[in-house]
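Annotators were shown the component list below and the corresponding predicted structure, then asked to write short factual statements about the assembly.
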Amino acid sequence: MKKIETDVVVVAAGLSGLAAAAAAAENGARVVAFEKANTVGGAANMGMGPLGIGTKQQKAMMVDIDVERAFKMFMDYTHWRVDANLVKRYFENSADTIEWLEDMGVEFAGAYKYFPKSEQTWHIVAVNGGIGRNGGAIMTKALMDYAKSNGAEFYLEAPVKKILKGSDGRICGVIAAGPDGEEIEAVCKAVIICTGGAGDNPEMIKERIGYTYREDMFNFAIPGLKGDGILMAEEVGAVRSEMNIEMIYILPNSDFGPDCVPAVFMQPNLLVNQFGERFIDEEQMQNTTFTGNAIAIQKGRVGYSILDSSILRGYIKNGPDVTNFVHHPESVADFDDVVTEYIKNGNPDVYKADSVRELAGMLGIDPDALEAAVDEYNEMCGSADTKFYKSRKFMKPIVKAPFYAGKFRPGAYGTLGGIKINTRAEVLDKDWNAIPGLYAAGTDTCAIYGDSYMFLLPGNTMGYCLNTGRFAGESAADYAARD
Amino acid sequence: MGKVTLKIDGVTIKADPGQTILEAALENGIYIPHLCSHENLLPAGACRMCSVRVEGTDGIVTACSVRVREGMVVDTRDELAEKIRKLSCDLIVRTHPSDCTGCPKYGKCQLQTIIQVVGDTGRRLRNNKILTPANGTNPVILHEMYRCILCGRCVRACHDMRGVGAIKLETVNGRMQVVIDGDSLNDAACRFCSACVDVCPTGAIREHEEIAARQAGKTREAGLVPCREGCPAGIDIPRYIRFIREGNYSAATAVIREKAPFPHVLGYVCTHPCETECKRKYLNEPIAIRNLKRYAAAKDDGSWRQRRVLRSASGKCVAVIGSGPAGLTAACYLGGIGHRVTIFEACDKAGGQLRFGIPKHRLPREVVDSEIENILTDNITIQTNSRIENAPVLLEQGFDAVLAAMGTHRGVKLPVPGSDLTGVHVSTEFLKASGQGGRPYVGKRVMILGGGNVALDCASVAKRLGAKEVHVSCPESYGAMTASEEERTLAEEEGVIIHNSVTFPEIIGNCGRVCGVRIQKISSFSFDGNGSMIPKIVPDSDEIIMVDSVVFAVGQRPDIPDGFGLELSGGGRIAVKNDCETSVKGVFAAGDVVTGTASVIKAIAGAREAAARIDRYLGGVGNIEEKLSPEQYRDPSIGRQENFGCLLRRSGSVLSPEVRCGSFEVMDLGMNDEDAARESNRCLQCDLRLDIAPQRFWANFRGAGSGKEVDEQ
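Structure shown to annotators:
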């Protein structure tokens, strides 16, 4: 067994781990980070940017949001069932964290909304000076480079297997498995857990959250997110905290293909359940959390988005009604081609029929019920949505064949929570005392959303990861220096 | 050859004259993004990701295709080079799925990390995705070509490196794509070597989830070569199968002997966890590894002896108690490294279970004799008819260390009414007697109690002793029986009647002799703290099976004399810590006496471990490795083979049940020359994958201008 000695060990180098490593290193600690994958960044590599409140980007863009307004909005949304102190500290630090990243060379394209109804808190990492995909990956590389320039060392393909606790109750090291199979024992003063939740652990999701992967939950199972940190924290006495899932809704088999399919089916047309009944003001479909929640309480956890070819023609001509940065096709002209190709290949997400009754048959909905629902909906398109009060501009009748349906299911970015921390990112035991030398950050600890992801302040999860990572890094460096 | 000196991004490095700029940079820890280039493949210069400027030359060159020169000055961050790189990245990304979520390659994808470095996204170019659906029809290799970025590495690996050409680049509907050169991989003469999987930078070509999952959490060596990983003794299986294919049977046997001194015995009786793990099972059927081993071992000419280097005498003496597979293995390797070994065997002949447990029709005794003869060198003496009553006393008698390896030779009789009737046997004595030519009484009908391999051995012996009707009863369901599937099939062919999920509360007697067994159906069973079974009996399910004799085959225990001087654990086994140290310093234990009745290969593996540990105890370094086999060239160019994927397993022939039940002749006839040639040719040669360089990522290198180097693997 190889043995190394350091001040702070960071368990996993995703966004929170990188922030923790960078923060601990710039505060003078010797840092070793162990990462399971052979590259750093974890789930953040698919993200676009973090939340910031009160940043200079917002001031430049004349965005009217400050910590007070965001905090009140957030606490209203969560009914004060979350740690107000942690939320406050996170929001207060978020602007400084944006600057911290800029000092490392990360550029931001500005502060953006995720969807029209959200706030402009999303600081999208600039890609070639503008908005692009995978800005998160550029940010994580910058964080690693910065941490390394401050002396942090990274071990890749080296998952931590166990956290060591001394007989005095203090955390004193970790055991990791090196890429060559050799075990590495790292003796240290503090350990920061940042393993990113259990998105790739269907058993844990089933046991603690109650969803069954690929039956009623189609979450992004980023390989390697097994909940390692949560389990290791429990092994050394951490209290188990409630776990949740960052719910959205998704066409499970079409999300990775051409953007026109998810973009068109996410438009606020007619969304019905297995009984052919509307269950949401479709304008909310831009809020993936709310819609995910609504779908998750329908029979079979299914929602069918229905439109006709006249609506489609409008989108081809004028673009979709609602856009977001994730599904942002240049054009949806190829929608019918892609849907046809998908159907030919047996993709179970999409349907196309010559009549509403035929469509109902394909979806397993009672044809009379769906026909009645469409008739009722079309009638309201001529007056007003007296059922859920959807804005008139989105009321477009479904009349012209062919008709299309997209079968939406609950999805999720990953799991949230599992380890209980305080505002200093110290891990708490069952008596809510801090376990000396143990810190955690990121989604392993993220219980600040309560029951639903707070999408009105976009960039929230990346923001939480970065800021709690910094808290943990600073606290651990401070603790290691004191000790 | 002298090195040349050149400068990359202001850093002066030395490189071999034949190297490309890219190779030189990477070797010196300087990362230049590259996609179509791969260490084992000829440069293609196609992706233009490694664009750099070389001072004094016009335009931009690809670092993968230009060789280093003395005094060369290379700028990887030249503005035009960066521009070309970004454009190339754009062109690649516009064909690739927009979202990485849901891709199993996430975190191990070279494209993902290159985007991280190059910083571009394809956003400004019109998306042009490939809509080819996933093709999961092949049970090993999965194609999700909508993730393909046309780097061509798979095609070059298949064609250039492997000489197969099962996949090719072809224009389909006006677009270049990687396609199978035929209706299916099998049709395209694919050898299923998985080189395409190993070089694919994205999630386009992968192995099926079930296969990939078996590799997770293991080292590369262990994950990629499952047969070798599966063997408890770590025998280098792909290597000896290659020797068999080459017709070098002595070399093949030597490879086995490097890890296990009983190649021929194992060829007859190994439980072959290697075959269970063999990756070919996903394609159709696993390689018949055990019978290949037997075939090779039978043809061994003993030339391995010339390669054996006996180390000089250490002056230390080791006592080994028991001469079964564990004892003999430990003696073999301890003797090989210069210790003097004395084996104490309680019986009149060496061999342990090989001689007294395993029936003759499965393992001929001549094979046992000749293997033992091979092991007993000048350093090793054996004293038969020597039962040791106390192990630590041997230390007092002058031995420097002791190994207890007495196996499990005491049969267990359950305390059910009737177990003392005449006609009730226990497996150990039953098998021992019949193995020595005795004919224990079985009568016309016999009941074997137990569901393991030993029970089925007893059943097959009973058949050969003339029993007309052989029953086997066990509490396990058919699928949960500990007997292997292979053994169950053979037994059933011989007409053995298996009663599953039953308990046997009573043996019924008449005038002191067995006349039947009462069995009851059970719905489930569990064990209490003492290891006693608690069955859940199905009411009114009693049945009486009329038999003339009964054999208990419900487990075996070590036969350890009272006052043996060592601490015991549950089941009367010798308690060990750190795998083989007993409660007395200097006394070690290995094999069945520690693990309970297991397998020959496990006993060998345990004994190797013990031998190494004993050597360390005696002041050595614990290195018992031997090089008995010649060098071998692993030819990466395996070539095409039509219908390779459909080749059926050929494990040789077995005597028909009618013939084999009539005598104790060996029933498995093994392979003939053609079987061996064909079967060894079916091997997927998984070890070739280890010669393919693992994929590396920017984070594996010293980043430009950043701090410490990451740990280089």
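Statements collected:
1. Chain B touches chain A through 50 residues (CB under 8 Å).
2. The two ends of chain B are 27 Å apart (CA to CA).
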